[in-house]
Amino acid sequence: MSRSRNSITAALVVLVMGSLHCTADDKPDPRRATGDPGLNEEQRANLKRYHGLRRLALRLLEQKSFRAAQDKVSRALLLAGQIHGRNHPLQAQTIALRGRLYAAMGRHDLATDSFRAELQIWRRALYPGDNVVVADCLHRLGVSQLLAGNHQDALQTLVKAVAMKRATLDDGPKRLGKQYRDPSKPPREPALAASLHALAQVHWKLKDHDKAVALFREAIALRRKHLPSAHADLVQSLAALAVCYEALGRYNLAARLHSDIVAKLRSRGKDTAARLPPALKRLADMSLRTGKLDRADKQYTEAYTLAAAAAAAGSMPNAVAFLAELDSRRAILYARTKRTALAESLLRKSLAVFLKNVKANADPVVRCLIQLAKLQREQQQLNLATKTIRRALNVVRKHQGHRTYAYARALAELGEVYAAQKAHEQSARIMGRAFEIVHKLYGIKNPRTRRLRARLVELYTALGWKDKLQELPK
Question: CB under 8 Å to 136, separation ≥6 — which residues?
Fold first, then answer.
């Protein structure tokens, strides 16, 4: 379920917190639009400079020039305060831009602070009750809390966002603060779908799997109603639902969705050239998981060829990491088809890329090390396999934690190495720890849990541990 998952100056944090307070003279006045003719000459000049800074900050954010963008946003915030006061909607819009900047930098804690400050300003500025601006603020705040790992907070925030967006869906005029919505504007259902998708992710993280699947399906239905068949948002929801089905062991449904995504992207030709390789990779992963090795080989090869072409054209971000990920998946395929030398070569090639930033690439690093240890174990290089798998465990402990599937997988492989060394009791204990983690994560019905349980039964039976066998969940 996880395959997939910073330096900011203190001055900006002070600005965020300062925007949460207002004096009587500072109270926001929504009637004073940014082009208010009541502005004096100095305020109009500042407003012109403000818009120039905002446009430049957005351009720099697109170019990932974060430090330069940070400077422009800081200056824009100061100007917004000079024009309309620190708690005007203009300030809220600028704080939201700063939240986007923090999110792009991976500082989701500071992004959360910014979106919370933005929400406070809009709540003061707008008519109380349901309105689309506050609903969108809640959505941004909830997504930021989700990315920061604050799942319970994200759940509460996104439930409010979804409820408010549902309340503002009907066709009649809806109050936006003290103004009525323009009925000619686009429908709000795609915005509701975005919040449903985010809420589904939260429920998945909280292991409420049935609720997550239901919400993903509702988001997909709304996005299909309003978006083109190959739109990135629709494909995102379809892929998320497919991952859910895969993790729940519903492989046929997952494969059908991945195939559907690939077909949609193929139909758009060059428009989706950079998005087709990842979709093909997910489909190939599904083929590999279900034992359709020849099909997986063709799909991985096509994905690699298309990704290399997109990388050469400069149209695919993070192409190097993606190609390394493809190499690691092809290595697993080659290991299963007994092309051991080629598999090991691809694993080491992938590791060379991922190890440049272990923190960002912890999951693929661990997967490569586990697979490399497995190859070494199968070739009876047991001392080398022990060193490799312990290296994987160290990466998991440092970057992912003891309660993750990655940790369970690494423990299980260490157990297999001990079994190959005839240390069966130690192997059984290690495997038992891995089983406890997987059982807690996925439940007894999940295929991952069932496979590990079957291996434990073999070990416990061989050791004559009847009490342990009886204690195993059924």
Answer: 161, 191
Please give the model's pTM, rounded to 2 decimal places. Answer: 0.77
- Characterise 11 by phi-psi region: left (phi > 0), alpha (psi -120 to 50), beta (else): alpha
Number of neighbours of residue 357 by Cβ within 10 angstroms: 11
Task: Tell me 355's DSSP state.
Answer: G
DSSP labels, 85-143: -TTSHHHHHHHHHHHHHHHHTT-HHHHHHHHHHHHHHHHHHS-SS--HHHHHHHHHHHH
pLDDT given for residue 313 in this prediction: 85
State the residue for tokens 């038992």: 432
Q: Cα(389)–Cα(416) distance, rounded to whole angstroms?
A: 10
| Contact indicator for 416, 388 with CB cutoff of 8 Å | no
Point out which residues pair with 176 in neighbouring strands: 179
Tell me, what's the pLDDT at 128? 64
Distance CA 275, CA 233 (A): 12
Torsion-angle region of 129 (φ positive above 0: left; ψ -120 to 50: alpha; else: beta): left
Paired strand residues for 180: 175
Is 179 a residue whose pLDDT tops 50?
Answer: no
pLDDT tens digits, 124-164: 877 666 788 899 999 999 999 999 999 999 999 999 999 99
Contacts of 7 (CB under 8 A, 6+ apart): none
The rounded distance, in Å, linking the Cα atoms of 97 and 102 is 9
CA-wise closest residue to 178 among 133, 136, 135: 133
Q: Give the pLDDT confidence of 379-393 residue by residue, as tens digits.
A: 999 999 999 999 999
Q: Which two tokens stand for residue 182?
A: 């323009």
Query: pLDDT at residue 351 above 90?
Result: yes
